Amino acid sequence: MTTAHPAYAQLRQVTPIAAVMLENNPGMMTLDGTNTWILRAPGREECVVIDPGDADEEHLLRVAAVGPVALTLITHRHGDHTGGVERFAALTGSPVRSVDPRFRTHTDAGLPDGELIEEVGLAIRVLRTPGHTKDSTSFVIEGEGSVLTGDTILGRGTTVLDASDGDLGDYLASLRALIDLGTGRAVLPGHGPDLPDLQTVAKQYLSHREERLDQVRAALEVLGAHAGPRAVVEHVYSDVDQSLWPVAEQSVRVQLEYLRR
């Protein structure tokens, strides 16, 4: 019997190379929880782990137990992906590579765009996809073609751009870069279920962002060029549950910065 999403505390095989362990930390921003991905080449014992997750001891121990872990990679800095990094490195002895140097352990190596990481029979291409955060990074599993998208593309819904260092211009460029990878690539996201075709989803994301930008432009024509994020949210997101308005306000703030450059 195939394990379906969501399945907490169970290793769920998604592709011949990629399996996922779902952390039990559901919430408004994490959907069902954080997906910790485990990549293993056929016939190999060692694995590569993507995003150990939050500081959840039980989750970290379960992921460490699927090892030995040869390498840990980080998609971006948010705590639901990185809160357990230090503990996980101690449990596994694994070097941790990330764009943000704060999370690097047992190595000084970052994640240069385009680098091919060859480890334990795997070939993983680094694709920098900033926008959700400045350090957001995706990973392409060469040969298989699947793409680990972190929070750049989610398994359902759309992602929120971090108002502190997210950038809509970068995000739109990142979506176009993912579209350019072509068809038939599975999406292995940081939250939510896996999806069958990256290009289709990335095009939907791009269309959604462009539609929202048009709505914000129209709102500014009504409210005035200097309207604040909250006023724009109340105008554009009037059909959305008000409990989600604080999250929408983050996205609108980033959109306004983009439009006012």
Automatic annotation (TrEMBL):
Keywords: Hydrolase, Metal-binding, Zinc. Its cofactor is Zn(2+). InterPro entries: Beta-lactamase_class-B_CS (IPR001018), LACTB2_WH (IPR041516), Metallo-B-lactamas (IPR001279), RibonucZ/Hydroxyglut_hydro (IPR036866), Sec-metab_biosynth-thioest (IPR050662), WH-like_DNA-bd_sf (IPR036388). The keyword Zinc applies. SMART domains: Lactamase_B. Residues 33-191 form the Metallo-beta-lactamase domain. This is MBL fold metallo-hydrolase. It comes from Rhodococcus oryzae.
